[in-house]
Design a protein that fits this description.
It is a single chain. Helix content is 63%, strand content 10%. It has 23 helices and 21 strands. Helix 8 packs antiparallel against helix 20 (831-850).
Length: 1040
């Protein structure tokens, strides 16, 4: 079989086929079968296998639609013959190329295999290479004419569609597109070459400018010679300058050595001061030790007094419990006595009822008891009212004593706070720095001074020391708003931060806040729309600083531009919560109260009385005087309150004594009242009872009554004794409580003096530390500023001697001293003057050279280089132009050949068309208009006596139109080349005669043409006889 022909087609799950194998002959192949048997699916499978898109087959919208219903994939395998001289890579594929196309629901793949079924390639480019090699264009209707294309072509009477069919089948469309693309590329290349030719103009101008510069650079050589002479003088001037420096260094060395005695004196003085301070420190430590021992003794006494007070309280509680038990026992005895008396009265009443006189006596007794009961009731009520009045008065006095004690304690804390603030302000009068970190800041500054050489830029801080207020009125508010940021230091880089941390550690300043900020930044220019829209001042508007870095840090770190100051709480509440001002962060009142609004929460924070506020205040003297007056006034008020407390204590004791006496009288009166009521009830009870018995003897009850009365009297005496002890216990408790409080107050006063002694000891130790630091400073100064400079000066002196020798040798190599003398010498000229003259001439030389940027030699070399470059470019662009002209001529020649070949193909098409029509006695003519892109067919039928020409094939019968179309198609086949061709339902709409003539024509043409043909038809082809060159195959009937 010839190369490129199809030897076998295998389909699996493709369209209506589950599994189909077809062997094809080398020449003519007929495939027949009923409609629906899957004949057309074979040609569709060929198109898909050779890369045709699904829509181009007009049988499906996508490749997955070709998969048979109910299956998950479809496979097409095509065996391509690869024999002979035209074989494609026979050493790789062998005699057969197996093309396998596999389709799934999600993707499709193409695999190329050799004759043994081994996979060789899978890329689309490899398939395209095979298609181009064998000239297989499945979209060309002359290669594969599908059923739809056949019907479309047979039914179409449109001349433009026929032209497109002809233009594509003869490959004129492809050649025309290629020539058009080449013409566009030539036009683009011509524009590029023209642009390149125009780019030579500026370069030519530069070349002319260089030539002009060369002519103007003649005088530069003279300047160069003058510079050379001055450099000779400069070389010897360096020698003379070093000699002068050697003399100066010798004088400097003598002066440095004179500084040693003065520095050593300061070291000795500090050593003596340290010894004296150490002695003073030892004395202070002994005083502190004795104070501590006394403090321990005070603690023991305090504990003893508190224990005594607790014992007095415990004794009072025990007496109260014993008193309650005695009262309970007394009540029981009185109750028993009442019962005995009731029995006696009952016996007596029985006896009295025997006579009338006894009855009248009972009535009299009842009247007397009524009077006594009324009198006792009035007395009990009066005593109860007096007791209630005294209890209220006692509660009021106790509450007043508690309030006074609370006020005394609060004032004492306030007095201590004022004294501490006064001490701080007095310290700040001597040194403002102590307000922003205390004594630690002073130690930190001394450490910074010792390590100042390690800093890239000296740190700035504390921030509060660099800030001033426009008015002391806002000092507390600003202090509360900025807070700890006032104690912070600012450095310019991370290295300085580490150095400052070391200094803080050395000064025992552990919580130092350090901020890194660029000192070179200018002051922030804050736009108005970024500020709070209010008339009230902000923190930033009331503070001033000479350093823009300080203000920038307060803006960036503290948001000072967004913190607003108001006069009082009501205004602040309106600004912070009601007005909802943009860019507002917080609101502060003059006393330091803070208000802010976050989300839906309104927050008010009262002033912090414990913090150290008002550190920015400048009128410290007035503040100190004001706080001292306030402390003195509060102490005087406390003395008066203590006097009031003592008086109230005496009144409370008196009222408590009166209250206890009233309680005793009220209880006695109530007890007597109850007795009278019981007697009256007994009389009433017995007056209604008639007792006929004789007098009863009550002598048995009287001894028991006497014993109970005696027990009651003894118990009342015991209760009186307990009441007396309870009164003494209360007085003892108050006394011990007062002595304990007085002792604690006196102990606090002594503790204050201990604090003073400890503070003095701390000051002495700080002085020792300062003296040690100063001594270390002078020792370091001796090393760094005296001995080290002397060593450096001696080293410099030695280096200058060596440098003089070096300069002398270098100057001698440049020129001799006599040559410099011949040039006028260097007298009156210094190194600086010579350098100035050299620099002046050098600048002049540079100015002259800068006009051209290069020396005259460089310019000449550049001129030659640019001239050669322009010549090369001109030659190269001329070559481009020649090649473009040659390409344009070749394109024009190809275009003429294309037009000539198109005309020849038109005539050849008419000849071949008439040749095939003549087999049926029909003649015709094909007119191709390339300009309007139309193709018309004219036919003359043999039975037409008029011999009129039919210009529209739609006027023919179905068979005549199909036959004429077949002839037109065969004519095109004769003008194209392909390894195989396929036609589906080529004989549609033909009658039996036309079909026989068409079949004979097709078979003769196919056999004579020599390529492989595949004919598909549903009609009977029994008139065609099978042979060596003709193979017939019948498709199985479709299943119902």
């Amino acid at each position: 079989m010839a190369s490129g022909t199809i030897s076998r087609i295998r389909l699996e799950n493709f369209m209506c086929h589950s599994s189909l194998h077809i062997e094809l002959g080398e020449h003519v192949n007929f495939i027949t079968g009923q409609n629906g048997s899957g004949k057309s699916a074979i040609l569709t499978a060929l198109c898909v296998a050779f890369g045709c898109r699904a829509k181009s087959t007009q049988r499906a919208a996508s490749l997955k639609d070709f998969i048979k219903t109910g299956c998950s994939y479809a496979a097409i395998v095509v065996d391509i013959s690869n024999h002979g001289e035209d074989a494609f890579k026979p050493e790789v594929y062998g005699n057969v190329i197996i093309l396998e196309r596999r389709i799934t629901e999600l993707s499709s793949s193409t695999v190329l295999k050799d004759q043994h079924g081994r996979k060789v390639a899978h890329r689309k480019d490899d398939l395209i290479e095979i298609i181009e090699h064998f000239n297989i264009d499945v979209e060309n209707p002359c290669v594969i004419m599908s059923q739809d294309k056949s019907r479309e072509f047979l039914h179409s009477g449109n001349d433009r569609d026929k032209f497109k069919f002809f233009f594509k089948a003869t490959l004129l469309q492809q050649v025309n597109d290629m020539l058009g693309s080449i013409r566009e590329k030539l036009t683009s290349a011509d524009a590029i070459v023209e642009e390149l030719e125009n780019s030579i103009g500026p370069v030519q101008k530069d070349l002319d400018e260089i030539q002009r510069k060369i002519k103007n650079m003649e005088h530069i050589e003279e300047i160069t010679q003058d510079v050379g002479n001055l450099k000779k003088k400069l070389a010897w001037a360096w020698v003379y300058d070093v000699v002068k420096k050697i003399e100066q260094q010798a004088d400097k060395l003598e002066k440095l050595k004179e500084r040693i005695p003065a520095c050593q004196l300061r070291i000795d003085q500090n050593t003596a001061i340290i010894e004296e301070l150490r002695k003073e420190s030892i004395l202070k430590k002994e005083n502190v030790k004795s104070f501590l021992e006394k403090t321990q003794e005070v603690q023991r006494i305090r504990e003893k007094l508190e224990n005594d007070m607790h014992e007095a309280v415990k004794l009072k509680i025990d007496l109260e419990k014993e008193h309650a038990r005695g009262v309970q026992m007394l009540n029981k005895m009185n109750k028993r006595l009442t019962q005995l008396q009731a029995q006696v009265r009952e016996f007596e009443l029985r006896h009295m009822q025997e006579t009338q006189a006894e009855v009248s006596q009972i009535e009299d007794n009842k009247r007397e008891l009524h009077q006594e009961i009324n009198s006792s009731h009035l007395n009990a009520t009066r005593l109860k009212d007096e007791e209630k009045k005294l209890s209220e008065e006692l509660w009021g006095i106790s509450k007043s004593i508690g309030d006074i004690e609370k006020e005394i304690n609060e004032d004492a804390r306030r007095i201590n706070h004022l004294k501490q603030q006064t001490k701080d302000f007095q310290q700040r009068q001597h040194d403002k720095l102590t307000a922003f970190g205390g004594d630690r800041v002073l130690s930190l500054f001394r450490s910074i001074e010792r390590h100042q050489s390690r800093f890239k830029c000296p740190p700035v801080g504390p921030i509060g020391d660099h800030v001033q207020l426009s008015s002391d009125y806002w000092s507390v508010a600003v202090d509360c708003a900025i807070g700890k940021l006032l104690d912070a230091f600012i450095v310019t880089c991370h290295k300085d931060l580490l150095v400052l941390r070391d200094c803080a550690k050395e000064a025992n300043y552990r919580s130092l806040q350090i901020i890194i900020y660029d000192f070179a930044k200018p002051l922030h220019d804050i736009l108005n729309h970024l500020l709070p829209s209010t008339k009230h001042p902000t923190i930033l508007s009331v503070i001033h600083s000479e350093s823009p870095t300080i203000l920038n840090v307060l803006v960036d770190q503290g948001h000072a531009e967004r913190q607003v100051l108001v006069q009082d709480y009501e205004v602040g509440k309106s600004v912070a919560f009601d007005q909802r001002i943009r860019n507002l962060k917080e609101v502060y009142t003059p006393d330091g109260a803070r208000m802010f609004f976050k989300g839906s929460v309104q927050t008010f924070l009262p002033p912090n009385r414990k913090g150290r506020v008002g550190r920015l205040c400048t009128s410290l003297g007035e503040k100190i005087t004001e706080m001292q007056k306030e402390a003195t006034g509060m102490e005087q008020i406390n003395l008066e309150r203590k006097g009031q407390k003592r008086k109230l204590g005496v009144q409370r004791d008196e009222i408590e004594l009166q209250l206890r006496s009233l309680k005793k009288k009220r209880k006695d009166e109530e007890l007597q009242l109850e007795r009278k009521k019981v007697q009256l009830d007994d009389i009433k009870k017995f007056s209604a009872v008639n007792n006929h018995d004789t007098a009863v003897d009550t002598s048995e009850l009287e001894p028991e009554m006497m014993q109970v009365k005696e027990d009651i009297g003894n118990e009342e005496l015991v209760l009186q004794d307990i009441n007396l002890k309870l009164t003494y216990a209360l007085q003892e408790e108050n006394k011990r409580r007062a002595s304990c409080n007085d002792f604690i107050n006196s102990a606090y006063a002594e503790m204050g003096s201990i604090s003073d002694v400890q503070h003095e000891l701390q000051l002495v130790e700080e002085k020792i530390h300062d003296a040690q630091l100063e001594k270390a400073h002078y020792e370091d100064l001796m090393e760094r500023k005296v001995l080290a400079p002397i060593n450096i000066a001696e080293s410099v002196y030695t280096d200058l001697q060596l440098l003089r020798q070096e300069y002398f040798e270098k100057a001698s190599t440049i020129c001799t001293e006599s040559e410099v003398d011949a040039l006028g010498g260097v007298a009156g000229s210094t190194v600086e003057k010579l350098n100035t003259e050299i620099n002046k001439l050098t600048r002049r030389l540079q100015q002259e050279s800068s006009r051209y940027n290069e020396s005259i030699d460089d310019l000449r070399a550049l001129y030659d280089k640019k001239r050669q470059k322009i010549l090369r470019k001109q030659q190269m662009y001329a070559g481009f132009r020649d090649k473009l002209s040659a390409c344009q001529k070749a394109l024009d020649l190809r275009w003429k050949k294309f037009q000539r070949n198109a005309g020849l193909l038109k005539r050849q098409l008419t000849w071949l068309f008439n040749e095939h029509l003549g087999k049926k006695g029909i003649s015709g003519y094909i007119n191709v208009d390339y300009k309007n892109q139309v193709l018309s067919v004219e036919l003359t039928m043999p039975q037409d006596a008029s011999r009129d020409t039919i210009r529209d094939t739609r006027g023919l019968s179905g068979g005549e139109r199909s036959f004429s179309t077949l002839c037109f198609t065969l004519a095109l086949h004769g003008m194209t080349e392909a390894p195989f061709r396929a036609m589906d339902e080529f004989d549609v709409f033909m009658d039996a005669v036309s079909r026989k003539i068409s079949l004979d024509t097709l078979v003769d043409f196919a056999v004579g043409h020599g390529s492989q043909w595949i004919f598909i038809t549903p009609h009977d082809i029994s008139v065609v006889k099978a042979g060596d060159r003709i193979k017939k195959q019948q498709m199985a009937a479709p299943r119902g």
